[in-house]
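User: Okay, second chain of the day. Same drill as before: sequence in, structure tokens out.
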Amino acid sequence: MLAFIFTVMKKILILLSMICVAIVFALVAGSVTGALRLYHIPTITNEPAIKKGEYIMVSNIKTPQPFNFLVITSAYADSLQATYMPDTKPGSRFVYRLCGMPGDIVEMKNGILWVNNKNFDEELNLKNQFSISNADYAQIKEEDKEISEDQFLPAASADSTIVTFEKTVLKKYQHAVKFIPHIIKDTSSAFAWMRDRPYWTTDNFGPLAIPSDCYFVLGDNRHNAQDSRYIGFINKHDIKGVLLNK
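Assistant: Same drill. Structure tokens below.
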């Protein structure tokens, strides 16, 4: 009886070892070819859909479609064109949501994205900035204030505060709290790559036609993402994969 149990356990261990070897081989082969890669997310750019610290699976086999998250390369050392991520180099990879396909017309009106005259943001749980009175802010529960590290910014005035909240929180408090969209009016940074559109801003731009073999991407955390508004169109050859688990 013991010999039989030992034989069965040995076969099970051999089978499990073969499965583990096959999985490791598939992951290595997938990483080399780009068919299956694992990435770690270091930023809050796409919260709440993709959390900082999360792992994502990406494949270059899947065809990019609207609303997909894409892994892209950038000519910049980082998406801010700054130094907050000193280990990154030109050609580093970033993740953004695909919002505009070749031939599409994109337009942002007071923080809401329209694609071919349809509200692209309507079904998405995005994060945006809002001005809120200090009295109203005191009504929000602590657990909702601590959704992520970027939810609170310095007071806009003695009586109000700029906050970053996702749509689910807005719905929770919409009957008790007045949220005023914080619309960025600065024209010095967004669309600097389009010299003939000096009046376009982060929250108001377009209509903009997407050229062939180009794509337009945005981060879900709209005021914490240096996306196509800042780095321009994404060329087809700069798309390295599509997320599989989002």
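The chain is about 20% helix and 30% strand.

User: Thanks, on to the next one.
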